[in-house]
Amino acid sequence: MPRTPEPEAGDLDAIPPPPAVFHIEQALLGALLLDPQHLDDVTGIVPASFSTAAHTALFAAIGSLPAPDPVEHATTTKWLDQVVAAARDQARGLSPLYLQNLIRVCPSARHAPAYARIVEAEHSRRRLAYAAQRLMHTTRDISLPQRVATTLAEAEKLTALVDDISARFPPHAGSLPRTPAPSPATCHDEEALDEERLLLATSTAHASSVSQMRWLAPGDFTHCLHAGLWQCLTALTRRGTPVDPVTVLWEAQHRGLLTTGARPKDLLDLLSGTHGSPEHWGERILQRSVLMTAHHTGRRIEAFTDDPATTPYQLVTGSRRALADLSAVRTRWQHATAPTPTSTPPRAKATAAPRAGPPRATAPPTARNSR
Question: Among 235, 303, 327, 359, which residue's beta carbon has the most beta carbons within 10 A?
Fold first, then answer.
């Protein structure tokens, strides 16, 4: 039978050392094994708060067994053997030797509450990282029938998690994270560019729709020239200036858009072809902006969790700031997709009919146009 080759020294060097929380978990478990009475002082954590299966199983076993008599525990390993037997159901590799090692590496059993607080903080970091990753995955899942709605639902879960962590670790002044924010992803989607061109063209042809689309912002566009042209359109309609490809071109010149390499003839051609309605293309652009903002929010929060120097208080503050940007674009999406209320003529006051003479004929009320 061929022998299994021994691992090379380089292979062992490639194994990353355990993170700091691993050693803190060891100290906490060692404190509880050394003096099980301290389990009553440990709050805020559950078995799932630990980072390894072995530590999870040990903490669950400690909590499931009645505390031993202190005098007996000081002289025998009977209770420790019971802990090993109970924990082996979930972690078969555990041995009494490992428990002895946990007791040995614990600096002070009295510090168990402080160790538990650190374990709780690191568990919050892992929970937040997982929720941010779920949000990013949802924004990219094209198989979802309602991708925006599902993405916003994941954002709500992430917000609730941040609130839960905030209740455990209330932020304080000066707790902004120092982690550099990742740069926004650049969209090179040709479909997005086509939709933006169609919006600009249809809005130029139907300028009355522009004032009704206040929920669309220049930052929703993926191309800076298109964002600038949308600003031109909104400025012209706000001033009551006639809108057509020529007047938009003139406004674009004053805003310096022609200095970016765009040629006047190209802009006139872009603003002349129409297909569909401005509202349709505007919603398409805003939908993409919601998904991109949600994905960037997840990346920002993930960056905070990946930085071991970020404290729990900084995680809360940084995550809330990231979620505020998503909340702003979500509000605009809700305005854009809300059903348009139908206007109804006000009910006329009931008046007493004259005592004599025929009733006066009245013209039927004119129905008002509503969008």
Answer: 303
Q: Chain centroid to CA 260: how far?
A: 34
Contacts of 132 (CB under 8 A, 6+ apart): 158, 297, 298, 299, 301, 302, 305
Dihedral (CA of 188, 190, 195, 196) sign: positive
Upper half-sphere CA count for residue 260 (Cβ side, 13 Å):
16
d(CA 194, CA 288): 13
**pLDDT per position as a tens digit, 293-335:** 999 999 999 999 999 999 999 999 999 999 999 999 999 999 9
pTM equals 0.82
Which whole number is the average pLDDT over 44-66?
Answer: 95
DSSP state, residue 169: S
Q: What percent of the chain has pLDDT over 70?
A: 87
Q: What is the largest distance, in Å, between two alpha-carbon atoms of the chain?
A: 120
Q: By three-state DSSP, how is residue 16 classified?
A: coil
Residue 80, SS3 per DSSP: helix
101 contacts: CB under 8 Å, gap ≥ 6? 26
Query: Rounded to whole angstroms, how far apart are CA atoms 314 and 174?
Result: 9
